[in-house]
Amino acid sequence: MSLERISPDEFQKLDEKDLKEEGVSKTSNIIGDPLDVLLDETTRKNITDTLLLKRRKNGKDVIFEVKIKTLEAPEFDKINDDCTEVTRNRRSGTTTKEVNQKQFRRMVAYQGLISPDLSDEKIKKQFNVIRGKEWASLDDIFFAGEVDYIATEVMKLSGYTDDFVETVSK
């Protein structure tokens, strides 16, 4: 068992035996000193996770692994900028910004994907991957729900979740 990614609700369900194996008690701070955690780059850099996806082949389930990584803030900023369309009203002069959510999620999934290696020549050839728009090939390679799942998990791994937030009252 690992307590690296656990919500407060899940933590409360653990029994003392499980916690003792991890070297913590229900009253201890399992993460440690906030300053130590923030200064320790291993809590932010090179974090990966493996997802299991299921497909049907010849009437049987085939399970395969997809490996993802965290994305840093500058990567998310670039993706957001690349997916934002700015329009200007000629009459009033006002501008509006709109993020293309479909493109955003595909770019997040593509940038967060480690394996399978989508730059592999076999994949490029079979799915006619367009240079500069590699993220668009995800629709041909994965099911729509798989792409959305990968993007969601990359975002969670990168800290875009409320699972880690707990209000502590004094």
Briefly, what is this?
This protein is an alpha+beta fold. The protein has eight helices and five strands; from the N terminus they run αααββαββαβααα. It folds into two domains: about 45 residues, no CATH class; about 90 residues, rbstp2171 (2-Layer Sandwich).
Describe the structure.
- The protein has 8 helices and 5 strands; from the N terminus they run αααββαββαβααα.
- The mean pLDDT is 80.
- 38% of the residues lie in helices and 19% in strands.
- The protein has 170 residues and is of the alpha+beta class.
- It has helices at residues 8-13, 16-22, 34-39, 73-82, 101-112, 121-126, 138-141, 144-157; strands spanning 48-57, 60-69, 84-88, 95-99, 113-115.
- The longest helix has 14 residues, at 144-157.
- Strands 1-2-5 form a 3-stranded antiparallel β-sheet. Strands 3-4 form a two-stranded antiparallel sheet.
- The chain has 2 domains: 1-43, no CATH class; 47-71 and 102-170, 2-Layer Sandwich (rbstp2171), CATH 3.30.2220.
- Helix 5 (101-112) crosses helix 8 (144-157).
Overall pLDDT score: 80
Task: Give the proportion of residues in helices.
Answer: 25-40%
What is the level 1 CATH name of the largest domain? Alpha Beta
Please state the overall shape, judged from the principal axes of the Cα atoms.
globular
Given the helix and strand composition, which structural class is it?
alpha+beta
